[in-house]
Amino acid sequence: MFSSPTPLERRGASRNLATTTLKSAGLIDRDERMRDANDKPGGRKGPSKKTGHRNRAMEMYKDAAAGSSRNALTLSFKMRLQFDISKLASRISTLVDPVSIRGAASRPTTIGRLRRSAIQTTTTRDSSSRMKAVDVWREFVHKRYNAEKRFLNLERIADDDILKKHNIIPPGVPGNTSSREMSVIFKLAASLKPEVQTISLANNNFSSGLYLSGLPHYLPNLSNLSLQNNGLKTWRDIEQFSPRRGKALNLREIVLIGNPIRDLEIKNGRKDFYRSEMTRRFPSLEVLDQEAVAKISFAVPLSTSSSVTMQPPLATAFSLPMAPSFITGVEGSIISNFLTRFFTLFDNQRTSLASAYLPTSTFSYSAVTSIPHRARAQRLHTSSALPNQRKLEWPPWLSNKAGGSRNLTRMGGVEQTINRLHIGGENIVKAMQALPATVHDVSGNPEKFCIDAWPVGLGETMLLFISVHGEFAEAPSMGVRSFDRSFILAPAPEGSTAKLDNWDVAILSDQLIVRAYSSYEAWAPGPLKVQSSGTESGPKILPPEMQAALRAIPEPKQTMVFAIIQRTGLNLKFAVECLEGNGWDVERAVANFESVKTDLTPDAFL
Amino acid sequence: MSALAKSDIDIATRGADQFIRLYYSAYDSKDRVESLPKFYRATSSLTWNGNPIQGLDGLKTLIEGMPSTKHDVQSFDCHPIPGTTPPSLLVTVSGNVVHGKQANDNPNATPVKGVDAQPRVFTQTFMLTPDPNAPGEEPMKPQVVYYVNADALRFVG
C-alpha cells in the first residue's frame, strides 16, 4: 500500500464527486448547515447558543500563500545558563556530594551526569595534564574533520598517532571502558563549523552502547552515523543513542554492519525483525545498513532551533473559549443514533457490534494509567462522591487474553504493535469481550459527553471523522473512568453486514483511549485560564529528594541556595550553578538570572 | 479492499511516531507560528476545543494568540484507514499540556497550588493523508509525504 503511491485525483474535482455521493447516501446535509446533536449523547439541550460564525462551518481556506512573515528580530538563543561551567564542575564537588545533587535534579538524566562527567574528565586531573588532554582531543577532532564534506572520521581511534604520542588510552580498548572520552569528543564535535553531518565510528571495538550515550545530547542534528565493525550486541546498546520519548532525532542513516546485534539476526533469518526494531527506535531513519527504509514523511523542515530562533510566545491568555460539541456537515441525528446504539451495545452485547465493522476495519485501545494533575488536585480519586474509584484496577486493561493496551509509547516490540491491532468485526468483538464490562450513561446528563465530528473527503470517498470524549462506569466495581474514542465512519456499503444490520454507517477505524478519571467540567463551555496567569506566588515547594539534597549543603550556602530557589523558581541544581557562577553573591545571582531567564529551558525550573 | 499487511502497520506506526515527535516539538518551539502550519494544507479542517479554525490563516492566528506550550505525550495510537491507498492514518494522542509556565512574560506568577495551576490533559485526533501534490523539496525521494487533513483537539482533564 505504502510502496505503491497512487496519485490521487486533484482534490477539487474528487471532493465534488464525493460530496455528491455522500449527499445521495444521506450522510451530508443538503444545505451543508451545521446541526446540533439535539439529543443524546453530547448534544446540549435547550436553545442553541451557537453564534453566527459557527454556522458557516469550515469554509475552505482560499490560499496558503499568504506572505510568510518570519520575524526579523531573532535572538541568539542560549540553551543553558551562561555560567562558567568548567569552573562550576570542580567547585560543585567540593560543595556537596555530587551524588546528592544528581538525585536532587527533578529528573536526573544520563545526559546530565555525562555532561558533568565529561567536564570532570578534563578538569579533575592536575592542571598541566588537564589542558593537555582537552587540547589533544581538540587537535584530534579537528584533524579528523573534513569540513567540506561535513564528515567527522572517527574510525580506528586507537591507532591515531596523536593519541599515541601523548600516551592517551582511547575509548574501546581494553582497560578503558569509560564513556567520558567519547562524550568529550562529541562535545568538541558539536562546536565544529560547519555543523557535522556525518560521523563514522567504524572499527573501534565498541562493545557497549554507553560510548554513544552522549551523542543525542551533543549532536542532535547528526544525519548519518556509521558504527560498522564494532561489538554492539543488544537493544540496550542501541537504546543508548536512540531518541528519548517525545524527543526528535534527525538520524537519517545508520550502518551497523559487522556488529553482533545485526549479524546474528541476519544469520538467524530475522532480518525483517531486526530492521523493524531498528526503525521503531529511530523513526527518522531513511537508510539502514545501506538499504532504504520504507517510510512516510512530513513536509516539515527539520529543526533548526539551535541556530535561528524566534521570539518566545508573548500571549498570556487564550484567544478562544472552550466551545461546546461541534458537529458540522452531517445530520446530527446520524451521529447521535450511531453513538447511542454503539455504546448501548458496547455495554450490553458486544458480540452484536461485529456487524458494524467491515472485514478490513481496525480497532485498538490504549490505557493511560497516571492520575491527571487536575484530578489529583481535586482529589477525585479519593472523593466520597466517587466511592468506587479505589476499587478500579488497571491490569485487565493493560494486558488480557486478546492482547492489551496498544499505547505506542510503551510497546515492547513490533510484534505487539501488530498483535494488538484487531482487524475485522469478529476479531474486534473478541478483543472487546476481553475488556472489563462498562456502563456508558448515554441517556443521562449530556454534559458528560463531548463530540467533534465532520465529514472529510479522501479521493472519491467521504468519511466521517468523529472524536468523542466522555466517561463510563466499570463493572463490577462501578468506579468511573474517562475515555476518548475516535472513529472513522463511512456510509454502510451495499451488501455489507452493517447495511444488513441497519447501520447507516460502517466503522472503518475505531481507537479508544481509557484514562484515569477527569471531571467532565474540563470541556464545560467558557473562558479558559492559563496555568500561570494567577498573580499569587506562594512559597515554592521542593520535592522531597530535593529537600534532602538541600539539607546536605552546609550553611551558610544552604540558606543562599534556598533564597535563590524562592526568588527565581530555579531548581536546586541550577540554583547552585547560578550561585557558583556569581561568587556566592545572592543579589548578583538574581541579577544574572534576570538577564538570562528567557533563554532557560524548562528543566532549569522546579 | 485487502487486509492490512504487517509492513503497512509497521510503516504507519513509525510514521505516527515521527509525526508526533516533530509535531509537538514544533508546537512547543518558539517558531511555532511558522513551523506548525507546515503540517497542514489549505484544505485541512480542524477544531480547537470545539472552535472551527478557518484555514492556515486561522491556525496562525490561533497559535499567535496562545501562550507558550509544553506537551508531554502519554500515549498515542495509529491505524492505517482501511480502503485508502496509500493509506491515510488515524492517529489519537493523549497527554499533558502546560500553558505559559515557562513564558518570560510572567515568571513570578506561577502559582503552585490550586486546580487551575495544574497541567491539563489533552486529547488530539488527527487524520494524516498523503499529499498528491507533494512539495518538491526532495522530489527524488520515494517517500510519501503526509499532511494533517483533519485535526480535533480538546482539553479533557
Question: How would you describe this protein?
Answer:
The complex is a heterodimer of chains A (606) and B (157). Chain A has 606 residues and is of the alpha/beta class. Chain A folds into three domains: 77-106 and 543-606, Ubiquitin-associated (UBA) domain (Helicase, Ruva Protein, domain 3, Orthogonal Bundle); 107-292, Ribonuclease Inhibitor (Leucine-rich repeat, LRR (right-handed beta-alpha superhelix), Alpha-Beta Horseshoe); 331-520, Nuclear Transport Factor 2, Chain: A (Roll). Chain A has helices at 11-24, 52-55, 85-95, 98-104, 110-123, 127-143, 161-165, 180-190, 215-218, 235-239, 260-267, 271-281, 332-348, 373-377, 395-398, 414-419, 425-433, 497-500, 544-551, 557-568, 572-580, 586-596, and strands at 145-146, 151-153, 198-200, 224-226, 253-255, 287-288, 291-292, 296-298, 326-327, 357-368, 399-400, 403-404, 422-423, 438-439, 450-458, 461-474, 479-491, 505-515. In chain A, a hairpin with a 2-residue loop joins β11 (399-400) and β12. Chain A starts with 10 loop residues before the first helix and ends in a 10-residue tail after the last helix. With 157 residues, chain B is an alpha+beta fold. Chain B has one domain (6-132, 142-155): Nuclear Transport Factor 2, Chain: A, CATH 3.10.450.50. Chain B has three helices and six strands; from the N terminus they run ααββαββββ. In chain B, strands 2-1-6-5-4-3 form a six-stranded mixed sheet. The relative contact order of chain B is 0.19. At the A-B interface, α12, β8, β10, α14 and α16 of A face α1, α2, β1, β2 and α3 of B. β8 of chain A pairs parallel with β6 (144-155) of chain B.
Short description:
The complex is a heterodimer of chains A (606) and B (157). Chain A has 606 residues and is α/β, with parallel strands linked by helices.
